[in-house]
Amino acid sequence: TLPGIAGIILGIGMAVDANVIVFARIREEIATGKSVQTSMKIGFQKAMSAILDGNITTLIASVVLMALGSGTVKGFAYTLMIGIILSLFTAMVVTRYILYSLYALGLKSEKLYGRAKERKSIDFIGKKAVFFTISGIIIAAGLISMGVHSATEGKALNYGLDFMGGTSTTADFGKDMTIENDIVPYVEKVTGDSDVQATKVEGTTQVTIKTRTLSLDERQELEDTLAENCDVDASTITSQSISSTISGEMRSDALKAVIVSCIFMLLYIWFRFKDIRFAASAILALVHDVLVVITVYALVRISVGSTFIACVLTIVGYSINDTIVIFDRIRENLALKTGKQTAEDLREIANKSLTQTLSRSINTSITTFIMVVMLYILGVASIRDFSLPLMAGLVCGAYSSICIATELWYVMKVHLGKNKATK
After folding, report:
1. Sequence-ordered list of residues with C-beta below 8 angstroms from that of 107, at least 6 positions apart, any chain
2. What is the gyration radius of the CA atoms in the chain, in angstroms?
3. DSSP 188-222
């Protein structure tokens, strides 16, 4: 299923991420003057906490989705869980021994491994008001669009066949047809909607076409179009109404699973980082990402079907992993600063941590983004409806980890809690 494909994409993205974290750490150790062999050993040790926390957080979500979800949500969770376990093994075991083997074979020059450059800290915290305003405008645009469409069309989002049901039309084409090229374009022209599901009836020349609910006039127009352009005998065309495949129970199960997942992720992050402000800012950044993805669906009017649930789940898993890596670096830099931190100290630590992890965040986002772009370019209409909001979500996930989550943590650390920073 498409949610299963989403689970594979997220698994690959996290596997790439784990390796990027390790390589970045090795380059940083080389830059301090250590030998390549020592840098490899220390690099893997320092990368361990970020990789484990990021993967375990997403693993918690997949276990909850597996237990509470149903249908395609459960399939997504199984696929994601397998991907996480495999990526942990490959990053911490396979990659380690490949690097050690290359070193033993004589590839010992530090030029082959790279040296991290000392970069001047970028003042992300100083621009937090700009970032919050941009996010607020985007989310507000989505909410306004949903309100307008709800008032004019009766539905806030463009709910597809899976949510709303529709019309199933079966026609005998008399010969083998290429569905995506020979049939779907004519159907989309009549319906004005890209949410078209066409499948061949096994052992026959018949094709069943599922579309949004069509009026009697639209059904007749579709019959005439197929007869005129595809040489279909009109007498073989039959139509019937079909119900939604995603029940209200499945939707409520998915929502419940996501909420419970967020609660367990919050508790785990709180436990690992010893500060609920890390957990709260990470979860708020997740909510931000989900709202932005919904905004894309609302503004572009992409069909909302089973892929919608898969897309949201993928963004939740991807974004929390990205945020954990940055928070892990903040935790590490905080430990180097003794005594009670002032607001200026926290600002310096946050900006330094974001700058240190920036190249890793960009590299991971680009590699995963390229994969989804290829899905969009090479995929059929249903795949494109899935990959377009996923691309937006990946960009938003990277943006929120860098420009929203850490800034929220800083604001909470300065203004909230018993041990808040001194100004």
Report:
1. none
2. 25
3. HHHH--S--EEEEPTTSSEEEEEESPPPHHHHHHH
